[in-house]
Amino acid sequence: MSEHYHLIVLGAGTAGLVAWKEASRHTDELLLIDPGPLGTTCARVGCMPSKVLLQVAREFHTGRRLAERGLTRDVPPVPDGAEVMQHVRTLRDRFASGSINMVKKLGERYLKGHPRFVAPDTLEINGRQLSADAIIVATGTRPVVPEPWQALGERLITSDTIFDLETLPKRLAVVGPGAIGTELGQALAGLGVEVHAFGRDDRLAGLDDEPVNQAAFEALGQSMTLHTGHDVDVEAADSGVLLNFGEQQFEFEALLAAVGRRPNIEDLNLDALGLPLQDNGLPAIDPQRLRAGDTPVYFAGDVNGIRPLMHEAADEGRIAVYHALHPDTECLQRRTALGIVFTEPQIAQVGIGFDELPDDALIGETDFGDQGRAVILDQDHGLLRVYADAQGQLLGAQMAIPGAEHLAHELAWLIQQNIDVETALQLPYYHPVLEEGLRSALQGIRRQLNADRRHPDLPLCGEEDDPLAGAVAPAETRG
Asked: In this structure, are residues 434 and 406 in contact, taking their beta carbons and an 8 Å threshold?
C-alpha cells in the first residue's frame, strides 16, 4: 500500500521551498523530500558566499587604489587568506540557516533520502511507496567536472568546494569564463591570487553583443589574465596542475572548474515517466507550465536548465505549484529576463539577447569611460547598449558598467511595463548619477527614430490628448 499526498516536492532548494510555501496555502497533504545537505544552492555555494568574497576583494582593491593615487600615508592592507575565508563561511552559514531551520520545522512532512520514480505518480524511498496527484522535481544541479580532471584530487576546486578552502592558492587556473568563473576569478585576483582564466571562445559571462563583450574583456583583463581560443588539457603535476592550452603549457597550484552545471537526476529513474529522454537525461519540459509531457510531474528551478537563476527558481516554484494544482488553467507570464554578474565592472543582460533582435532593431549606447558619476567612483570604464524595435519600444540591453545591478533592474521594469523610449526619457534623472548614462543611450535611440518633437523631455499637462504623442517617422535599422 502506498501513502498518498496531494503534492510531493523533491528538493529543498529555492524552487522546492517556494513551491512548498505556495502549495501550503492550498493544502496540508504535502511532503518534502531532500537527501541533504540542507540549505539552498544560492545560500550555501552560490549567490551569497560569492558576493561576500567579491565584497572583501573590492575593499582590498580600494585600499590599494588609495595608496596608488597617493591619498594615504599607510601601506595598502594585505589579505589574510585564512581569515577572509572564515569570514565568508561565517556569513554563508548565517544566510543558509533560514532555509535549514524552515525544513527542520516541518517534522514528519520532511523526509530525508533519495527517491526514485516507479510510475509517473509514484515514488519509492527507504522501502516506502509514495504516490501523489502531482510531483514537483526541484533537485537542482551540481558542477560539471570532466572525468580526467577528477584525478587532480584536492587541487581541483569547484563552486561547491571553494568556500571551504582554509586559505587561498597563490596561482590559480579558472577554466570557464562564464558568470561563475568570472566572479570567483576576479574575487580571488583582488585578494592577491595570480589568476589565469581559460575559455574556448572569447565570450565572457554569456554576452553575445560583441562591443559589450569586448568592453568586459578589456576591463576584466586588468585583474586576471584571459586566454581564449582553445580547449584545455589538464593533468596532475608533482607541485600542482599542468594545463595545456593550444601550444602553451602552464603550471598552477590549483584549478577551478567552472564549465557548467548538470541536473541532479541520476537517482530518479526518469525512465519510469514513460517519456523519451533528451541528451541531458531530462524529458521535454513545457517552458511555460514546466510540465513533463502529459504526466503529473513538473520540473522547477535549475534542474530544468530553462533560466538557471535564483529569482527564476523562486518563480518556477510558484509556476509549478500553480499548474500542478490547476493543470487546465491559463499559463502564468514570465517576468522580463534579467541576469547580473557581480564582477567589476558589473555585467548584465536584460530582455531579449542581441542575437534575438529583429533586423530593424535600434541600438543606443553609452561609453562609461567618460560618464561623470563613473569617474567620481573611480570606475570609469565599460559600455551600455540598449535595444528597441523600429517604433521605439524597449526590448532589452546588455552592459558591462558600474552599477549594472541597478540599471538592469530599471530597464527590466521599463520593458515589463511596455514603456517606449519617448516615455522613458520623460522620467526623472538626478545628477550626478549612473542613470544619466542610461538616458544618453535612450537619447541615441530617439535620434534614430527621427521623431518630430515639439516640446522638451517633459510630459505635457494633457499629454493624453496630445495628437503628436507616439507619432514617429520611419526608423533606421541596425544594418
From this structure: yes
